[in-house]
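Morning. Coffee machine broken again, so started the prediction first thing and wrote up yesterday's gels while waiting. Chain of 181 residues, entered below exactly as on the submission form.
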Amino acid sequence: MGVLDLMLEALAGEADLEGLMIDSTIVRAHQHAAGARKQKGGKCSGSGPVSRRIEHKIHAAGDAMGNPVRLIASPGQRNDIAFAHDLVDGLETAATLADKGYDADHFCEAIAQSGAEVVIPPKRNRKAQRDYDVELYKERNIIERFFNKLKQFRRVATRYDKLLANFMGFVKLAAIAIWLK
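Came back before lunch.
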């Protein structure tokens, strides 16, 4: 864990976890970000140079006030549910809000076992449709507004950084700035 991780974790300790909102956004690398030196081993883990991956996703968990609690980066083609457990594990909240991309039985069961209300609309093709609080779901736009604030930082929106670690450092710095406003 780096210094920025510790700072974000300290701020997240003050989060209003009445409602935890999760979502993700794609950030494409600028064309000039390609060409970083390749690492030995040739494995593509998503943390290497941009030349191997043109886009990445930022997965975020935010509190009821729209402040980030957790941030995770992944390759752009990964689906949202792949990192959902990492976003919510260990956080006690009254309700967890997410979009249809997070509608999976194992995830909804994990949320319910933690004692939180599941506010995730069911997918249309689900055989057993599940009820959810429609009025509370309308508050989910707060996490979308967080991503809008995050992309107001030019370095996040354009992504000139060649390495994912450098880019995520600035994403965390921008998230800290959002917390402090």
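The chain has seven helices and five strands. Going to sketch it on the whiteboard this afternoon.
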